[in-house]
Amino acid sequence: MKPTSRPELIDFKGIYMAHYFTDDWENVQKFQARPDDILIATYPKAGTTWVSSILDLLFFHNIAPERHTSLPIFERVPFLEAVFPEMPTGVDLADKLATTPRLIKTHLPVQLVPKSFWEQNCKVVYIARNAKDSAVSYFHFSCMVDLLPDPGTWNDFLQNFMDGKMVFGPWYDHVCGYWEKKQTYTNLHYMFFEDIVKNTRHEVEQLSSFLGLSTQAEEREKLTKFVHFDAMKQNSMANYSTFKRMDFKISPFMRKGKVGDWKNYFSVAQNEQFDAHYWEKMKNTTLQFHTEI
Ligand code: PPS
Q1: Does residue 291 belong to any structural domain of this protein?
Q2: What is the mean pLDDT of the chain?
Q3: Atom of ligand 1 nearest to the CA of 197
Q4: Nearest alpha carbon to residue 10 among 27, 28, 23
Q5: DSSP strand pairing (123-128 vs 188-192)
Q6: In testing the pocket of ligand 1, which one of 21, 50, 57 has its CB within 8 Å of the most ligand atoms?
Q7: How far is the CA of 254 from the centre of ligand 1 (A)?
Q8: How many domains is the chain partitioned into structurally?
Q9: pLDDT confidence tier of residue 86, bands split at 50, 70 and 90
Q10: How far is the CA of 134 from the centre of ligand 1 (A)?
Q11: Are strands 38-42 and 103-106 parallel, antiparallel or unpaired?
Q12: Residue 167 region, left (φ>0) first, then alpha (ψ -120 to 50), else beta?
């Protein structure tokens, strides 16, 4: 990766963002979703790539078994709001997707999702990951990809995470926003990273049923093996090794894939401060997370 300047954190419609995710806003906002589109929505580092791979396999493995070893995940599942140098925009990639359904990724908070997804009653799969592991994963990712603002030290980053000064805004509002949406929008399947780690097979089954697919247990079994952390880490079409803006010498994209890795990074003082702040922020929601399994 060539040394380049990092983008600034900007205030965009009340959410902190970086220009790589807002430069095509007009087209993002007027994106025309189709009723059978599936939106995969997450706060960064919640398991987007994992669930994207699962969905791609569930829908297309039978008809195009070579897909998952010949096409990078970011082409199979375009990142809607992304405008990265030397790449087509996310909207262009999504518009040109030849698959049915189209699988589309977003990190936008619920209030910024293009309205056509709701109007078309599209299926939405939201994946949430506990705040502590999300922060650790986001920190390592920010160190290795120059499309995000400079993360500073771990301590700076954690403070900024608590203050919501992150690209895509506060984790707290993001996970709660989609949780609230789910109460009125029935086509939203809310999943947890920790559950997928604990029982991938069961989560694949639940997903499959939400999507109305009648996959055989044997197929799901095979698929579960393809999306195991070690298999995805080895698969250059899933591990982002073909994506030029990441420096794997700093940290791999498929880093650890664990629940509870935060314990290796939070000091006792940071943990106490984080917990006090967390419970204050999350006191009005029924949403609950596991920080260990
Ligand atoms: S991104 O950049 O926001 O789209 O990243 P995202 O894909 O959401 O999250 C990356 C983290 O998910 C972990 N991951 C997995 N864990 C377990 N099993 C599988 N198969 C898997 N695939 C991705 C990945 O390792 C990142 O987490 P960390 O904690 O950094 O390892």
Answers
A1: no
A2: 97
A3: 17
A4: 23
A5: parallel
A6: 50
A7: 6
A8: 1
A9: very high
A10: 9
A11: parallel
A12: beta
226 inside domain: yes
- 3-state percent helix, strand, coil for the chain, nearest multiple of 5: 45, 10, 45
Burial class (CB in 10 A: 0-12, 13-18, 19+), 272: exposed
Residue located via tokens 């079994």: 221
Q: Whose CA is nearest to atom 30 of ligand 1?
A: 137
The whole domain housing 23 covers: 10-281
With respect to residue 29, please indicate whether it lies within any of the assigned structural domains: yes
Ligand 1, CB within 6 Å, residue ranges:
42, 44-50, 133, 137, 140-141, 227, 229, 232, 254-257, 261
pLDDT value at 25 more than 90: yes
Beta-sheet strands, E only, within 38-106:
38-42, 103-106
pLDDT digits (tens, 9 = 90+) for 151-182: 999 999 999 999 999 999 999 999 999 999 99
pLDDT digits (tens, 9 = 90+) for 53-85: 999 999 999 999 999 999 999 999 999 999 999
- Comparing CA positions, the residue from 19, 267, 13, 266 lying closest to residue 134 is 266
Q: Which residue in the block uniquely carries the two structure tokens 């030397």?
A: 86
| Distance separating alpha carbons of residues 290 and 230, to the nearest angstrom | 23
Active site residues: 107
Copy the structure tokens of residue 235: 């698969």
- Residue 223 sits in a domain whose CATH number is 3.40.50.300
Task: Indicate whether 91 belongs to any domain.
Answer: yes
Provide the 8-state DSSP code for 167. T
Tell me: the pLDDT tens digits for 93-123? Answer: 999 999 999 999 999 999 999 999 999 999 9
